[in-house]
Amino acid sequence: MSASNARRPYKRPMGGWWRKNPYFVEYMVHEGTALFVAAYALLLLAGVFALGRGEAAWNSWLALLRSPPSLLLHGVLLLGFLYHTWTWFNIMPRTLPPILIGGERVKATTITRAGLAAALVASVLVFALAARLAS
Amino acid sequence: MKAAPRTIRIEVLRYRPEQDKEPVVQGFDVPFTDDMSVLQGLQYIKDEFDGTLSFRWSCRMAICGSCGMMINGVPKLSCSTFLRDLYPNTVRVEALAHFPIERDLVIVLDDFITKLHKIKPYIIPKEPRALSQGEYLQTPEQMAQYEQFSACINCMLCYAACPQYGLNSSFIGPAAMALVHRYNLDNRDGGRAERDPYVHSEEGVFNCTAVGYCSEVCPKDVDPANAVNINKTESAKDYFLRFLKPKGAQA
Amino acid sequence: MKRSNAPIFWALFGAGGMLSALIGGVLVIITGLAAPTGMGLPGDTLSYAKVLAFTQSWPGKLALFVVISLFLWHAAHRIFHTLHDLGIHAGLVARLLCYGVAAAGTLASIVALLQVA
Questions:
Q1: What is the domain range of residue B72?
Q2: In this model, does residue B248 exceed pLDDT 60?
Q3: Chain B residues with beta carbon closer than 8 angstroms to that of A27
């Protein structure tokens, strides 16, 4: 570069980029559901460890699960998971190759609804299985 | 009867490298009529207030892709964004995000041009073809495969919408991927193997986190996010299955 | 150009994301709300005997392993990218914090599940 070059391109900083647009705020919130998913996996893992240590250890783990703070925590986790489900199937039409039915491309809203319906059906089946195993 | 012009405040992020250490906001009160776009507002400023204001434009009809800028923080074509829809609020105009500012509303777009070159955005014939063999024939069904992705006008709004590009400009990015997809899907093209290494690379599709905003701002409904994400699946399939391919097959 | 190894982590992210989107919510309801309180499920759903029998069975072990490990890999990949989004760029620390925890959690789940003999 010669000294006479008047070019001096200005690169804008990215700090706080996600706060500048509601679309990005929502993106960060739905990315944040990962913390809920991780927390739940670790809770399950802790439960399996308690089970492995025998009946007494399991019963104190169960007492913890029945405590109000745990119920509150699981209520919050549930909200996180539901938001994850909603956003996961909302972005799905953008991630799938075109699906053709009778020569027509299936609409984005139809794909999202099908995903949510699949989640509902799967959830009912899992709950029914849990009820059968518990009875 | 001609309506009396109203006045709208347009704030422009100015950057004059010979005098500004960093960009500064300058406001103008611009009289406008209902048929005036933001681009015409800027042209009014250039003609009436400050001839040094720099911005790119050409066709004024949303097809050349030159006049993209951030309008109230959203990447838009300034020729197809109308002042009447923004009034009475102040309009904030800034150069396209994530690109270095050359001057005022003009960005340095070398990076995008380099990427366009790298993806070979043209039909690479499957085998040499003599003129005597005549033209390529393509059915409407074959054309429908790629048509949506061929609508890209290289306006770079999608890059300004992509935080992953802003955070790491080595990422191939949305429009270049839409064009990769467009040529790969064309039945006349046999260039996929030449484009794949870039798509599969550390600069390729896996930098995308499916934000999806690129497709929201695209003025031509190209849906570049779809092109990127379909190619994630394709790239992953190739990653895991490449060892099963018969020897001598293209990687 | 160097080929990206992201497909491994991306595939695990996608599998865990799909699984948690489909049944994550109902699992939280079952193990965290309905079973502990006995609302909607029998009050002894989480009794030692029942949970032990479930976890001793191979289908039960497999289900718990798949849920725990895939949920962890899903979260790890997402958090890894979120750190990048927040300006903490892919270094050894970020990798250990995310994928390291997922790998450790996966191993721990194998150990824990095999302990329940």
A1: 6-107
A2: no
A3: 211-213
